[in-house]
Each structure stands twice: as C-alpha cells, then as structure tokens.
Amino acid sequence: MKKKRIGILTSGGDAPGMNAVIRAATRACISYGMEVKGIIRGYDGLLKKEFTDLDIRSVSEIINRGGTMIHTSRSKEFATEKGIEKAVENCRDMGLDSLIVIGGDGSFRGACELSKRGVQCIGIPGTIDNDIPATDYTIGFDTAMNTAVEMVDKIRDTMTSHDRCSVIKVMGRECGNLAVGVGIATGATGIIIPEIRFDFEKDVIERIEFTKSTGKKHFIFIAAEGAEGVDNLHKRIEERTGINSIECVLGYVQRGGSPCAKDRITGSEMGESAARILKDNHKDSKMIICKNGAVEDIDLEAGIKIKSKFDSKLYNLSYIISI
Ligand code: F6P
User: Fold this and answer.
1) Which tens digits make up the pLDDT trace of 43-55?
2) What is the pLDDT of residue 244?
3) Distance 136 CA to ligand 1 centre (A)
C-alpha cells in the first residue's frame, strides 16, 4: 500500500523550538508508517516545489538549534488567490496527502485556505509573540522571553551605574505578552503594551517621580513594539524629568538562540500530536494547542476565529510591585 506522504513547512518569523517540532513530527510520522518531505522556505517553497526528503537521521542534531532547518519566508505570492490555487495544484503534483504548518496566525490563515480547497493541514503554533488566542502557548515564546530578560539585565547594569532611564523595545507585533513577561521578570518601572492605552503623565512621569522620591535612581520601561506613542518616548522623558534617557531596540536577537527546555519539550509533544492525528487518518484540518498545560487539538478554522482575550493579571501585578 502507498505510504501517506506528509509535507512539513515553517512559515513567517522563525522561532526557537521549530526544529524540535520538525524533528518530533518527522520521526513520529515515520514511526507511524508515513513518509515526510520538508518544504523549503515555507509557502514560497510550496509554490516552487522546492523540498527535501526528511528521514530519521536528517533531523538529528537539530533539537538544540535555533531557527528552522527547512528555512522560512513570508510569501507574497501565496497571499493571492492565484498563489493559493497554485499551491493546491503543487501539493497534488508532489503527491502530498497532508501538510504540517508550523507558524503564527498568518500561516494558519494560509493553511485554512488550503484546507478549504481540499488539502488537509495541521497547524502547530510557532512564534515568539504568543499571540494566537486559541492556544495558551506558542513555541519560541519562553526562549525569546528569557533572551530578552538576559539582555535587559545587562542594560540594567549600565543604566544603574549611570543613573539613567531606558526605554527598551521588545517584539510582539500587536500583542503585549512578550513585553509583560519581560517587564515582570526584570522588575521594570513600567510596561507599555498595545492592549492598554498608556497615559504619559500618570504611567511614566508619576511613576518615575514616585520611585525617585523613595530612592530609586535608574528606571526601565519595557515597551512592546506595537504600542502607540512609544516612538521617541525616551526623549520626552528626558525633556520632562531631566534624567538622561536612552532607547534600546532589542530586535532580532530575541528570535535567535538555542531553545529552552520548555520549547523543546512542548515542541516535541506538538510535533508528535500532529503525526498521531495524521496516522489516525482523519481528513479534518486541525490546530494543535496548549490548554492548561496539556497539548490538545481543535478544528483549524474554528481555532483561527477565536478572538484575543487579553489577560491583564500580570500587567496589573507589575503595577502593584514595580514601585
Ligand atoms: O511574528 C514574529 C516577529 O518576530 C514579530 O515579533 C515581529 O514584529 C516580526 O516578526 C518581524 O518580522 P520580520 O522578520 O519580517 O522583520
């Protein structure tokens, strides 16, 4: 009997732990009697029919590596009707029965379009932003958060020595989860996120003045890149308080590096989970999610429709203790 052929691709921004997912999904698919093709550079590779055979050994020595061994991209062509049709046709030509798509919400919307046209897709959440409402966790978030914390700790040393104020920008697009985590873990004076409008006087100046009055001499604000009003915030702080202030954009350092244990373990669980669904020969497209610590699956289309519900618990905690 012909073996079921599975394509794996990573799409959008890379995230530490994607390799652990590729490894687990590949090995589990093979153990369950399927064969695996790695599509190179995400949906772009699907449009160009660029792929590599993945076997048990070709995914060796990657669990500890950041990035994605099969590369990734943000495909403009795939975002068009013509592109999607071509991708569906290519799946047929390449003999792919199903796809495992590792990425964020944009990648999942693409997978959903393929699914509507008859290509079964299993989505695995991989993004440092942790911004997919259907799942409590996305692969790469914890590693990125720890990397950012390490960087902020280093900045803090020099800020303390110079009695300065720093506005440190972290990634996350329109989502403040990374900023909140980093802000709590570094004891930032303030956290600025897209979900909660900040008041310059109350949330920045008053906090600096109050903590200064209790003896604090250096100040850190963690700002999510997608928050409104954070451009040149350091200049406004300096003008208003006279405190020497700097801006520091952490940038792509947050996406790199060896994945932490959580991303390796959860990534492995999610990869195997996708393979198990495919082995059981379901035809439906699914999204693998993490709920209350357990890896589960839900319908892909229903999953991408779940809207964000921002949990302000940690943000409020920071307000209480960062004084
Ligand atoms: O979605 C992951 C992410 O790293 C975001 O935090 C960031 O805004 C974006 O990707 C950057 O994308 P690019 O790699 O295309 O510059």
Assistant:
1) 999 999 999 999 9
2) 98
3) 20
Q: Which atom of ligand 1 is nearest to the CA of 74?
A: 15
Using CA positions, which residue lies closest to atom 10 of ligand 1? Answer: 13
How many C-beta atoms lie closer than 10 Å to residue 228's C-beta? Answer: 9
44, 129, 263, 297: the catalytic one is: 129
Does pLDDT of 309 surpass 80? no
pLDDT of residue 1: 79
Centre of ligand 1 to C-alpha 172, Å, is 7
Residue 308: what pLDDT?
82
What does the block give as tokens for 152?
Answer: 């902020």
Q: Are 299 and 285 in contact (CB under 8 A)?
A: yes
Tokens of 257: 């590096």
- Looking at the chain, list the stretches that DSSP marks H as alpha helix, in order from N- to C-terminal side: 18-31, 42-48, 81-93, 105-116, 141-162, 177-186, 206-213, 233-241, 261-279, 300-305, 313-321
Q: Residue with the nearest Cα to atom 12 of ligand 1? A: 13
Q: What is the pTM of this model?
A: 0.97
Residue 284: pLDDT band with limits 50, 70, 90: very high
- Judged on CB neighbours under 10 Å (0-12, 13-18, 19+), 7 is buried
Distance CA 64, CA 203 (A): 40
Measured from the Cα of 129, ligand 1's closest atom is: 6
Pocket of ligand 1 (CB under 6 A): 13, 74, 104, 127-129, 171-173, 225, 255
231 tagged catalytic: no
Tell me what pLDDT residue 190 has.
Answer: 97
Average pLDDT for residues 141-160, to the nearest whole number?
Answer: 97
Measured in Å, residue 43 CA sits from the centre of ligand 1 at 17
Q: Mind listing the pLDDT tens digit for each residue in 219-267?
A: 999 999 999 999 999 999 999 999 999 999 999 999 999 999 999 999 9
